[in-house]
Amino acid sequence: MKKAKTTRFGVSMDADLLKEFDQLILGKGYANRSEAFRDLVRGHMVEKAWEKASSEVVGTVTLVYNHHAHDLADKLTDIQHHHCKTIISTTHIHLDEHNCLEVLILKGKSGDVKSIAERLISTKGVKHGKLAMTSTGKELR
Amino acid sequence: MKKAKTTRFGVSMDADLLKEFDQLILGKGYANRSEAFRDLVRGHMVEKAWEKASSEVVGTVTLVYNHHAHDLADKLTDIQHHHCKTIISTTHIHLDEHNCLEVLILKGKSGDVKSIAERLISTKGVKHGKLAMTSTGKELR
Amino acid sequence: MKKAKTTRFGVSMDADLLKEFDQLILGKGYANRSEAFRDLVRGHMVEKAWEKASSEVVGTVTLVYNHHAHDLADKLTDIQHHHCKTIISTTHIHLDEHNCLEVLILKGKSGDVKSIAERLISTKGVKHGKLAMTSTGKELR
Amino acid sequence: MKKAKTTRFGVSMDADLLKEFDQLILGKGYANRSEAFRDLVRGHMVEKAWEKASSEVVGTVTLVYNHHAHDLADKLTDIQHHHCKTIISTTHIHLDEHNCLEVLILKGKSGDVKSIAERLISTKGVKHGKLAMTSTGKELR
After folding, report:
1. C72, C80, C91, C98: which to substitute to probe chain B, counting the most B Cβ within 10 Å?
2. Which of C58, D64, D110, D141 lies 20 to 30 Å from D2 when distance is taken between CA atoms?
């Protein structure tokens, strides 16, 4: 990674609009306006990266399922082993007597990460699944 | 509307990140960076306004339907007349021999606009419907 | 358009889950469950069509702007004339003394419709813009 | 949890539309149509639950950050300890020499989970953050 170089530039905006924006980001916990703008910009960059199937990305898949469902845990493990090069880690939480949460961290080409996520989420017995699309951090500063 | 007062402030950002953002917005047609940032900020404000059911907003509803569907045109007209105070105008396009497009412009409380949109979109025979949430422009500068 | 042929199939679902879903769609105005499921399916199909830049689609662009902004109305008209083959119609509403709403209906390749929408929304002085992505209705039944 | 009771009901749909939907869900890995419809329905229920700030939900927060950033790891740990009753677990991945991934699993009222997520994501030095909204699984069958 080459050394990051920070630049400073001016933005002109209506004073009232800016005031409202400042209140909104304060409520979310931002220490200053620059950080909020950087987050808006970085969010756009991550979205753009995921549009190209060959971009290297990171994603997390969250699954909720009933571990009593026939063969389900085995099936999910099978799929995961089949993609062990892309799946970095899996965390399992026993939500209650019946329900499990599994959170997988994946790193690879965005096309592959999406397809593994779809395969897991569509498995019979998985009650709910979500793919969170993020970044390797390399291109984001 | 009180007179708009423009202010100028500085944002610090990584130089490479900013370069990538500049390319992205150039591709979308933005003349300069400030306008792109203003759009990001105004987009947030409009979203926030719609979260409160009592905010005064503007929305457009786009409907695609088959005008041969039994009674459908009549039903849609009935619903629209029932809400004539909120619906400002309707534009109708004959897409082909069978398919119609209708675009309604609504102004009112966000809760009412949403509920009228849902009522129209859920009508049997409407093939596809979309609500675009925008603003009266009063709070946006 | 070839004659539509309706088919009927069974879906098995947990009784309580179905009950909750029925309440949700009733609140939105659906007359029956089949119509709600058809809308879910058609919504997916429209999304998929827009993913391919060459699909023929329909879209509506909603713009809010201040007509006092220097040259803005002229600029927007110029862009629209430049794309007159794709833009079917434009409706203009005088929201108040300052603010205008313009709703354009476009039909063409999804890549072109998106790019015209971005060009209009990014124009300096446009306070807010939204593209609603819908369908020519041909592939939807 | 009371015993789940499965019910079966009929849906009527255009034959061609259904054929296209079947192809779409096959590509995603669904073994059958009922499972795809159940996922659509459960997805709606989870969205609805998150709209009410007092619903008990589960969420995962994914953070990407540079561990060299001054004090950042300490700040993130502080925030997490402050909300230790809601945060069930944290998994940490060393993405490369500079970039870290942290995935937190939270369980609590949706308003609290959202607010903790915003607080973490807005922290200076966090490059990208995402909240994935899911469920305790109790209400989903």
Report:
1. C91
2. D110
